[in-house]
Amino acid sequence: MDEEKDPGQLNVKDCFESLAQEARELYLPDTIQYIDGVPNPLDFYREYVCPNRPVIIRNAITHWPALHKWTIPYLRDIYGEKEVTVAVTPNGYADAVYKDHFVMPEERTMSFASFLDIMQHSNDLEKSAQHPGVFYIQKQNSNLTEEFPELIPDVEADIPWATETFGNPPDAVNFWMGQEKAITSMHKDHYENLYCVISGRKHFILLPPTDLPFIPYGTYPAAKYKEVSPGHFEMIDDPEVGQLPWIPIDPQEPDLNKWPCYSKAKPLHVTVNAGEMLYLPSLWFHHVRQDQATIAVNFWYDMEYDIKYNYFKFLENIAAVDKKL
Amino acid sequence: MDEEKDPGQLNVKDCFESLAQEARELYLPDTIQYIDGVPNPLDFYREYVCPNRPVIIRNAITHWPALHKWTIPYLRDIYGEKEVTVAVTPNGYADAVYKDHFVMPEERTMSFASFLDIMQHSNDLEKSAQHPGVFYIQKQNSNLTEEFPELIPDVEADIPWATETFGNPPDAVNFWMGQEKAITSMHKDHYENLYCVISGRKHFILLPPTDLPFIPYGTYPAAKYKEVSPGHFEMIDDPEVGQLPWIPIDPQEPDLNKWPCYSKAKPLHVTVNAGEMLYLPSLWFHHVRQDQATIAVNFWYDMEYDIKYNYFKFLENIAAVDKKL
Fold first, then answer.
1. What's the whole-number average pLDDT of chain B?
2. pLDDT at B284 over 90
3. Which of A104, A174, B143, B219 has the most CB atoms at less than 10 Å from its CB?
């Protein structure tokens, strides 16, 4: 392979294409791989974490009581009166580019019982008309441990074999519960992510860090949705947040006329079903949607700021230089 | 750190400098680190192998009988009659750039007893004059297991904790024995290397893969030393080997007028004493010398052709593009 190309003939864009193509030839799967059962920590580190390779782990959370306990009546019983923070948007897109703005959701405080009512009647047109918009509990501040500590015994505060793998307990454990239309737009995190679906299912579109040069970025003024009258949302500028870099493309329907470069990206489409755990490696770009009401819990473990991160920053810098050429 | 630089202002050479500098800020040591005793395989993989970070391990081979048994009389007793392959050069430089050629050593077959005599009398001017040149057993074809199997019980055929770490036994185990002046010129290997000094000591000059853009490479016609009359070596062209890319600079006395770029490389100077083991990560550039007769055994474990290798090839390609600009 070393001899395949004459580097003397390459330009920077060729280098980007070689990087992405060789990643797939060398170590990235064409389709998501599965592990059946809890892996050995060293094997998992060597086979997945170090090479930055996603995988779905089956039978890793089947002992969690949450899998059968977390029904709407149960959650209402133990938690109904609790005040929760809910992200509300007109279209399901929270933290996404819309009309040349980076738009954040309206954050609404309500009782968990009210939120559960909305979840329960999502498909009842009459009742859901009383609560226009898409509702999603998606606060990523370790909200499971911070806001829902009573739910921890139904899952775990950490994944013991993963804590051994990464050498530290998780930095955050997040609780996600939302309606069919809730969407997380394409972005990346500086975390190693273990994403566990409790009920429903999640559809991920994944792109490896080495596809960065093909992914459009823009800089957008921040705004926030606000429901100004029933069912009517406006985007309100948020000058305090200012300008933000974000990915404008919708990988479900990419506009290749606007962003022809994206045609070189090779997304991995992954469905995570209830009872499954996705290992989503740090710095992978991901877009997440669901096609039914879904509950999930994810664990963010600190990533290592080592040679992989170092090279990724280099790739970002070279991509920025290339844009100027 | 993400915010430190405006990528819009960078050029390719700035990107190289950021890469090398951030490597040192994030994960590379200023001086070699030490571990006292055999590490836990998972910790070792996470702390050193995955981030591609060198370290010296003490007390990892103190149980090897070789440490006290491998004297010249002992080796002569058990192995004196054995035929061995010895690299002979006029100056100690085998596989190095000299007078615009890549020069390989003369490979001489002799009895191990004769080689040991030469080793023993290195400092006796009269006796060493009878054997002009520098003699080095340095055949890297797993010569310990292939040529010296009787020596294995004095060391080990593999390093059990390292075999667990890497998930496979070593691909090669090499035996090194040579005179004070024997030198290995700067190069890199596609292996994870555990380098164990039995007697004497080795001085390594190490450069991380991220310093690649500052390291000069040239392409040189291959040649081989041949002693044409006693003490007089000639370089004979080797058209079968043809042209080879190699690093011409001597990191002990770098010619910065000829290669000003090398001033940005930040070598790590490391001495490995008898009884110590150096973990030399894959793709690190290294120059090795000794200041006394030295015996060593090294274990080459297969490297992973994963994201680190993938990014390194990208860096090589970008460096080649930059040279054209």
1. 94
2. yes
3. A174
Q: Which of A114, A157, A115 is nearest to A136 (CA)?
A: A115
What pLDDT digit, counting tens, does each position of A299-319 carry?
999 999 999 999 999 999 999
The pLDDT of residue A140 is above 90? no
**Any chain A CB within 8 A of the CB of B74?**
no
CATH number of B51's domain = 2.60.120.10
Contact B311 A309 (CB under 8 A): no
Which is it for the CA torsion B52, B58, B60, B66, positive or negative?
positive
State whether B305 and A26 contact (CB < 8 Å).
yes
By C-alpha distance, the chain A residue nearest B9 is A321
Task: Name the residue in chain A with its Cα closest to that of B44.
Answer: A42
**Full residue range of the structural domain in which residue B84 is found:** 7-324
Asked if A19 lies within 8 A of B320 by C-beta distance, the reply is no
Question: B24 near B266, Cβ under 8 Å?
Answer: yes
Q: Is residue A1 part of a domain?
A: no
Residue B2 is assigned to a structural domain of this protein: no
pLDDT above 70 coverage of chain A, percent: 98
Task: Verify whether the Cβ–Cβ distance A43 to B167 is below 8 Å.
Answer: yes
Identify the residue among B11, B307, B324 best suited for mutation to test binding to A, counting A beta carbons within 10 A and taking the highest: B307
Closest alpha carbon to B277 in B13, B59, B46, B121 = B59
Determine, yes or no, domain membership for A2: no
Closest chain A residue to B313 measured between Cα atoms? A19
Q: How far is CA B82 from the centre of its chain?
A: 26
**Contact state of B27 with A307 under an 8 Å Cβ cutoff:** yes
- For the cut 50, the answer to whether the pLDDT of residue B3 exceeds it is no
Residue of B nearest to A19 (CA): B314
Contact A314 B18 (CB under 8 A): yes
Helix ranges, chain B (H): 12-26, 41-44, 66-69, 72-79, 112-120, 125-129, 143-147, 160-166, 307-324
Longest C-alpha distance within chain A, in Å?
68
User: What would the pLDDT profile of B170-204 be if each residue is shown by its tens digit?
Assistant: 999 999 999 899 999 999 999 999 999 999 999 99
- On whether the CB atoms of residues B235 and B165 are closer than 8 A, the answer is no
Q: Which residues in chain B touch residue A40, judged by CB atoms under 8 angstroms apart?
A: none
Residue B8 is predicted with a pLDDT of: 58
For range B220-236, the mean pLDDT: 94
Domain count for chain B, please give it. Answer: 1
* Three-state secondary-structure class, residue A282: coil
pLDDT, residue B5, reads: 52
pLDDT value at residue B2:
42
